[in-house]
Amino acid sequence: MSEQDLLLIEQYYRNALSEAESLAFEQRMADDEAFRAEALSHKKALLAIELYGKEQMKKKLRERPLVKADRLYRVWPWMLGICTLILLMLFWRIESQKQLEKPTEPVTPSTSPTTPIPSGTAKPLPQQADNDNIKQTTNTQKLFATAYHPFQEGGTGNNVRSNGQNPDPDKMTGLNQLKQLALEQKHAECLEAYEKLPAGTQQKEMALFFKANSLLALGRTDEAAGLFEGVASSQQSAYASHAQWYAALCALKTGDLPKAKKWLQELGSNNNASAAQRTKAKNLLRQLR
After folding, report:
1. How many domains does the chain have?
2. Same domain, yes or no, for 144 and 283?
3. Which of 3, 6, 61, 263 is most solvent-facing, going by the fewest CB within 10 Å?
4. How far from the centroid of its chain's Cα atoms is residue 246's Cα?
């Protein structure tokens, strides 16, 4: 093999030939068997040299790394310190930004005790409002104490009258016994008698009215109010007008003036009530105004 052929083979495997020269080289390998064998042998030699060079480089790198481990041990504390400093600076910047973006609350100027308050806009002080409420409650309690009397059949303004005879307890029905106990002011016994009535009798308006009468006398105002209001709403009941009066008194005792006025107005215009009942309701309503 001539020196010129060896140079040509080396240039081919190093991609140093032109396209025309590479085609001519490959055609010669196809036609000349001896030349093809020499070229393949030369290729193997080049590959062996290349592999040897790589192995030598790996060996050198293993024996002598680019960065020594002891240098890393000396460098990492500095790197950690720099990272910590950067994080602290970021945290300080974020907190500063939050403080700048936080809205400031407007300062409300305080009003001194001597500062006059414009007329028409003044509101009662809490203590004054409490005093007004106490005063109003006291007035309603006084009105209730003056107006309230347990129901007595045939009394002033009562249009449900008895025959004036004392009934025989042994001949009385459960409902009549309940009524008699209420009229005799035996209110605890009246409530016990109500519980003994049959379920159907308990729902009668007469039984409910006298039960409510005893409840109110015993100070159980809320329970009595519900029963009085139920009887007052029934226009067919003989006790409806009386129930209106006592429903108003219950509302007056609990301080519910709007409800008390409502029942008094209804009683004052109730044509089924007696003249005395209507007058009594109008007089009390006038005092509430």
Report:
1. 2
2. yes
3. 3
4. 40
The whole-number pLDDT of residue 240 equals 92
Per-residue pLDDT tens for 156-199? Answer: 556 554 444 455 555 578 899 999 999 999 999 999 999 999 99
Which three-class secondary structure state does DSSP give residue 66? coil
Q: How many other β-carbons are positioned within 10 Å of the β-carbon of residue 225?
A: 24
What's residue 268's pLDDT? 92
| Cα–Cα distance measured from residue 191 to residue 219, given in angstroms and rounded to the nearest whole number | 13
Contacts of 154 (CB under 8 A, 6+ apart): 160, 161, 162
- Whats the size of the chain, residue-wise? 289
The answer to whether residues 50 and 138 belong to one domain is no
Distance CA 180, CA 157 (A): 19
How many angstroms separate the Cα of 103 from the Cα of each of 107, 110, 242?
A: 12, 21, 64
Terminal-to-terminal C-alpha distance of the chain: 138
Q: Is residue 204 part of a domain?
A: yes
C-alpha angle 25/31/35, rounded to 5°? 65
Check: pTM over 0.85? Answer yes or no: no
> Could you identify the residue written with the tokens 């001597």?
114
CATH code assigned at 189? 1.25.40.10
pLDDT in tens, 142-159: 888 888 999 987 655 565
DSSP string, 205-227: HHHHHHHHHHHHHTT-HHHHHHH
- Encoding tokens for residue 100? 């700048």
Helices marked H in the chain: 3-13, 19-31, 33-63, 69-101, 126-147, 174-183, 187-196, 199-202, 205-217, 221-232, 240-253, 257-268, 275-288
Q: Which of 63, 80, 106 is the last residue of a domain?
A: 63
Domain span at residue 205 reads 132-288
Q: What are the tokens at 252?
A: 């007056």
